[in-house]
Amino acid sequence: xxxxxxxxxRFVTARSASFRDQVARRLDxxxxxxxxxxxxxxxxxxxxxxxxxxxxxxxxxxxxSRQMLGLADVSERFDKGYVHFTTRxxxxxxxxxxxxxxxxxxxxxEFDMHAIQASGSCxxxxxxxxxxxxxxxxxxxxxxxxxxIRQWSxxxxxxxxxxxxxxxxxxxxVHDRAVTKAHDIGIRLVRDAAGNPGYEISVxxxxxxxxxxxxxxxxxxxxxxxxxxxxxxLQVYNQIGRRDNKFxxxxxxxxxxxxxxxxxxxxxARFLQQRARFDGMDQQVLAEIERSFAxxxxxxxxxxxxxxxxxxxxxxxxxxxxxxxxxxxPEHLIVSVSLKSHGATPGDASAAQMRLLAQLAAxxxxxxxxxxxxxxxxxxxxxxxxxxxxxxxxxxxxLATANIGLISDIIACPGMDYCDLATARSIPVAQAIATQFxxxxxxxxxxxxxxxxxxxxxxCGHHHVxxxxxxxxxxxxxxxxxxxxxxxxxxxxxxxxxxxxxxAADQILGAIETLVSTYxxxxxxxxxxxxxxxxxxxxxxxxxxxxxxxxxxxxx
Amino acid sequence: MTKAAFxxxxxxxxxxxxxxxxxxxxxxxxxxxxxxxxxxxLFDRNDPEAAAQVERLALDxxxxxxxxxxxxxxxxxxxxxxxxxxxFRATGPSNRFLGKQADQRQQEPEHVPL
Lengths: 556, 114
Ligand code: SF4
Description:
- The complex is a heterodimer of chains A (556) and B (114).
- With 556 residues, chain A is an alpha+beta fold.
- Chain A has helices at 6-27, 33-42, 65-78, 101-110, 143-153, 226-240, 251-258, 260-276, 281-292, 304-312, 314-323, 351-364, 387-396, 427-439, 443-446, 508-522, 530-537, 540-546, 548-555; strands at 45-47, 52-56, 62-64, 82-85, 91-93, 127-128, 168-171, 185-191, 197-203, 215-222, 324-326, 332-337, 348-350, 368-371, 377-383, 411-412, 451-454, 468-475, 478-485, 497-498, 503-504.
- Chain A contains 19 helices and 21 strands.
- In chain A, helix 1 (6-27) runs antiparallel to helix 2, helix 16 packs across helix 18 and helix 18 (540-546) crosses helix 19.
- Chain B has one domain.
- Chain B has helices at 2-9, 48-59, 84-91; strands at residues 10-18, 24-27, 33-34, 43-44, 64-75, 78-81.
- Iron/sulfur cluster (SF4) is lined by residues 413-415, 419, 421-422, 454-456, 458-461 of chain A.
């Protein structure tokens, strides 16, 4: 993986030193809160419901064992001994003291981490496929491109004051695991007819108040043209993106209001100018970055122990079936470690769990870890021969829950339990659903089903692209939950359709049970997944199951 | 129902967040900040003093930030916010026993059920 060079290090330590100075000036009164707020936001520090929250960037979700160990230490030294992995592959500390944030930044810098681009109206920390560099269905590794974007966008002065935040995601596989179509810019590594690598660029995706699927603005862009093209998009957006209304300031609204054709013409014109200003230096940098992301040396080992465990240990087999994914190298697997044991808070990991994951990565996983936007941790390169040992260690630590992609593998934003913008809670809804379906012992029978929960219209929990999306709102002073169905965050991206009036907090679990049992009754066969069944039948039967009397009344 | 309770039995409390710790504080009767809602000064809901305090705090953010008014009603003599968001601020998250509910002295309002 990519390791910081001297320039990166100087940049990060200088940032931390200047923030230490800013905090001191805030405390001695030389900076007012209004002056200070944007400065703390630039360093990932928000004020939430119970205190400050610090968001630490994990560019494209990639961590080394050393970084994971470092984060575990930071969580114990400065916070409550756990972290929250977010839906943007980042980490949040929910209990830091303002006066200790500069020390946290210094500690992070020791292992090449920071909170830059974790908030504010800038280009945010770039995300990527969490199976990058490992997945069997991958044609090109998205990480070098993501790292190039990180370097280009870090401290890019021209784009430090955009109309709103700006998010990019990169994917290089057949299956889109990075939700690229829900990003301001989604980048897919593709090839032209002659097989030359390049990019498909989409623009204007986003969830939140006005959910939109990104539109393709360039179906093939030659590799060397990436940065000038991105600059062209950003320049056009910086110029015409709306600054008069915060809710209309994202580029998706620009795409919607200007029209993709006109925007495309503006971007292409700008691109020609920008391209002349790039001298090829970025491609030299990219070539170097690519070398640092070479596939690790994958040894061959005897597979007897793996085969025996598969034959004799049902729990192990279930774990392999559910939590692993095909690797480029047939003797290896990608292991997803679920941070959603039934009833746990999605995305939370204790310092002890983080240390174990770091140790497993160091010993069995070529020192690599990934954070998925689905709030799980990935060991991308594990030899099958090592899987019995890895599974055993995970099992001992309560980290072997075999539920990846199933109903209890729920994305949930922090919601009203922590977030000051929330209109309702997310976490307890996720906990209740996971616990209930575990008790029913139904989740493996139900099969792949993505539930995603947000605690407000901002949609950090990606509810619009959940097969079942749950949005927590406030209605007449109590929590109320609105359900959407048929959303999809993959290459078949779709925004879920609202099924009807919301459900009270004590009804939402029952509503989800009704939807699931309706699906189980309607599916043609066990291998017809919830989303396929929904696509075949549409929303009507689910609506009728949820609101029977209404539908009958209408029929009468 | 809680809104109705506020209308008939309502008070205002001045709240803010501590500049350094970021945690929720309430203005006490002696003009000191307390971390516990039961110790907060109750203002009559028509008393202009409560809003005046928030205005003052918007100008002086040297010790606390994000000042606001919280509507509470008395439940068995203990102030309880009518809005559930304020119950969270006064108590802590419902998924972890952290925040105010984890403090030694237990007088915080009961948490919101799911
Ligand atoms: S969706 Fe809303 S409640 Fe959830 S984290 Fe985002 S802003 Fe907060």
